[in-house]
Design a protein that fits this description.
The chain is an alpha/beta fold and 238 residues long. Helix content is 47%, strand content 11%. It has 9 helices and 6 strands, in the order βαααααβαβαβαββα. A 6-stranded parallel beta sheet has the order 3-2-1-4-5-6, sandwiched between helices. Helix 6 (128-138) links the parallel strand 2 and strand 3 (144-147). The protein is globular and about 55 Å long.
Length: 238
């Protein structure tokens, strides 16, 4: 099926549209202003490893489902403990830093441009509440934002991608999943979605064996490629 038959775009959020490590670093430094880069990076890694491990345990059925808010609170507790901070208010504030993530420089303008031509859906592992905060803080524009919480799973579980299929009312092959994470695009491919890899400094690069429909340097490049393939503008529906 030609890419000109794509009817809507589905965007990953964390890492693809917002710089998650930058936001978490800011929260960690606020927790302990004396930290330099050498002290901050191990704490950031501790946070990231906890989230990745616990989401995997949930996907594997080794732990009941918990929304991202709860996992963020766990991660914040671990990081604060490692930093020697035991103030509950400081831990709570650190957990909320997962919702205050800066957009990449091209994100807001890129989404606005793409929204002139396609319905845009966000599809994030962030909880509904966290996604609301993320969208507001980063100024993200959507026609609809979907949280993995509605599937009580995490990407790359197929039920999360199925949310976009159900809400859009479109066949999977008419949706283009856009992400900076090859693992995320592989998950979307398994359900039949088309895929576009967008390079980001913190993403998961494609492997030699990956075959995605588009490869872009950023959202402007993605929009240019879609302009070329679709031959002009059209109004978004929804």
């Amino acid at each position: 099926m030609a890419l000109m038959e794509i009817d809507a775009l589905v965007f990953d959020v964390l890492g693809t549209l917002v710089d998650e490590p930058a936001g978490l670093r800011a929260g960690i430094r606020h927790l302990d202003p004396s930290l330099d880069d050498a002290g901050t990076e191990p704490l950031l890694l501790l946070w990231q490893q906890h989230i990745e491990r616990e989401q995997r345990r949930i996907l594997d059925g080794d732990r009941p489902y918990l929304a991202s808010d709860a996992l963020d609170r766990e991660a914040a507790g671990l990081v604060a403990g490692a930093a020697g901070v035991d103030d509950p208010a400081a831990v709570a504030a650190l957990a909320l830093s997962a919702r205050r993530l800066p957009p990449w420089p091209d994100t807001v303008a890129g989404l606005a441009r793409l929204a002139e031509r396609f319905p845009l859906l966000g599809l994030s592992n962030a909880s509904r509440t966290a996604l609301l905060g993320l969208n507001a803080h980063a100024g993200l524009r959507w026609h609809q934002a979907l949280s993995a919480e509605d599937a009580r799973a995490y990407k790359p579980d197929p039920e999360v991608y199925r949310l976009a299929v159900t809400v859009s009312g479109l066949p999977p092959e008419r949706l283009l999943m856009v992400a900076a994470h090859a693992w995320d695009l592989r998950g979307a491919q398994r359900l039949g979605l088309r895929t576009a890899y967008v390079a980001r400094p913190v993403g998961d690069p494609p492997a030699a064996s990956d075959r995605f429909d588009l490869y872009a340097d950023g959202l402007a490049d993605l929009a240019d490629q879609l302009d070329t393939r679709h031959g002009g503008k059209r109004s978004a529906r929804g």
